[in-house]
Amino acid sequence: MSPFKGKTGFKRILNASGYSLDGMRAAFTGEAAFRQLVLLNVILIPLSFMLNVSRVERALLIAVCLLALIVELLNSAIEAVVDRISLDLHPLSKNAKDMGSAAQFVVLTMIAVVWAVILL
Questions:
Q1: How far apart are the two ends of the chain, measured CA to CA in Å?
Q2: Per the UniProt record, which residue ranges are transmembrane (predicted)?
Q3: CATH number reported for the structural domain that contains residue 99 in this entry
């Protein structure tokens, strides 16, 4: 058990919420890609409510948009850890960063496909 895992109950939930907000703030201020995805979500999510689609389709349109934010947060976390370990060029570091980027590419493709399938 980690010595950093001392809080339980409601105090743990409050602490975790603060850490989550810190992470969102760090991503928004330090990652241009995250800001771009937030802008995309600000456009697409309200648009989903203006479309004549079922509730399930609307939920899917919104879910894929939010998934892109989740993947970008994880991608940024991977990049931060790799850079924390070493800024030296290394094939494993490149692979880790490239795989995170590939995950984001897959999600962006999924957004395009889901929106196209539902709207066309």
A1: 52
A2: 33-53, 60-82, 102-119
A3: 1.10.287.3610
